[in-house]
Predict the 3D structure of the following.
Amino acid sequence: MVKHVVVSLSGGMDSSTLLLRCLKEYDTVTALSFNYGQKHVVEIERAQSLVKYLNEANQSINYRVIKLDGLVDLLNSSLIQGGAEVPEGHYAEENMKATVVPNRNKIFASITQAVALSIADKTGEQCDIAMGIHAGDHAIYPDCRQEFRDADDHAFRMGNWGSEKVGYFTPYLEGDKFTILRDGEVLCSELMLNFDEVYSRTNTSYKPILLEVESDTPGKKVMNIGMWNQGYYKWYSDYKSASSVERVEAFIKLGRPDPVEYADETGPVTWKHVVTEVSKVLEDHGSK
């Protein structure tokens, strides 16, 4: 029997690794990204770039971007355009709750469930929903916890005929970002993909930095987003927001540099600088 799956692909490290795992485990893969007015909308550009790279590498993905940006001025969160400043520090800090987007995972889940059920109805075969949620999200994001998932699943099954044909795939539920990244390294080898090419096409930063760059700089991979004032611009990741700290920590543990480029208020910075600064945050958090 053909195995189908629908992936919620944010463009971050977790969901991108999950996409690789689904390509390994399933016969057909549908991936959905959501534009809900997030400040870090570059993640959608990265998701699109990753899907293009994977399709060119003989992987087949049915991909859609779902536009929800009409909600931008109705949602209250530091992650939304026009919202408060995104806090910095470790994820365990209380101020990180400002990064919660009200009911975000419920909104995404409802659409993903609808697509998965539609695939199951059309094919007459089981279709799973894949989510990259992990233990590191549980404390700050209630909609990543098992209790929420159980309640949401109950509502889905109460409200839809044929819902028994939809299942779930959450391979990282009890893991963390390092668990996910380590699996990604294995999957890149198994799928014959270039690790750096995959993860350079992801964004974990909640405070990405847009900088002007020379359009003809030798050796630079420039992602143009248009010409403003006759200049070329590209996105860099920050290393101070909690999501970035967690990502950098995972790469440190893995023992290889992050292929994503980083910057701060001074401009682009080296991976060595990023490791030094994030290590200070981790040491400070560990001493509390």
